[in-house]
Specification:
The structure is a single chain. This protein is α/β, with parallel strands linked by helices. It has six helices and four strands, in the order H-H-E-H-E-H-E-H-E-H. A four-stranded parallel sheet has the order 2-1-3-4, with helices on both faces. Strand 1, helix 3 and strand 2 form a beta-alpha-beta unit. The longest helix is centred in the N-terminal third of the chain and has 18 residues.
């Protein structure tokens, strides 16, 4: 009986995993998006001090993950969202928050690989 339940639950588990599966934007894809002036919203969910220290991409919007639920209304729903952080963990959490709030076009981005490729970065000054 247990085996039968387990086998029947596999398709459901696979379906649930897919609902929170967001595509990852590679460093090369991100550079191409930026260079082509494609319309997208680059949401950097790191803390301002991290942007100052490690850099981000031109055109970024910084809403730290700790503030995202309160500020989600600032983000447009009619454009692709690229959610970014250092490794992608907070970006995925942000994508889940956005999806819960009705956003459909969400991708993830990890900035460490982008930076390691030597692609252009901007270094904003944190408000003191």
């Amino acid at each position: 009986m247990r085996r039968r339940f387990f086998l029947l639950s596999l398709p459901v588990a696979a379906l649930l995993a897919q609902t929170n599966d967001f595509p990852m934007v590679t460093p090369d894809e991100l550079k191409s998006l930026i260079d082509s002036n494609a319309k997208f919203y680059f949401l950097d969910v790191r803390e301002p001090s991290e942007l100052e220290q490690f850099g981000t991409v031109k055109g970024y919007v910084n809403i730290p993950i700790s503030q995202l639920e309160k500020r989600v209304g600032e983000i447009p729903k009619d454009v692709r969202i690229v959610s970014a952080c250092q490794r992608g963990v907070r970006a995925k959490k942000a994508a889940e928050i956005l999806a819960k709030n009705g956003y459909k076009q969400i991708s993830l981005c990890a900035m460490i690989p982008y930076r390691e490729k030597g692609f252009p970065l901007v270094y904003p000054k944190a408000d003191k």
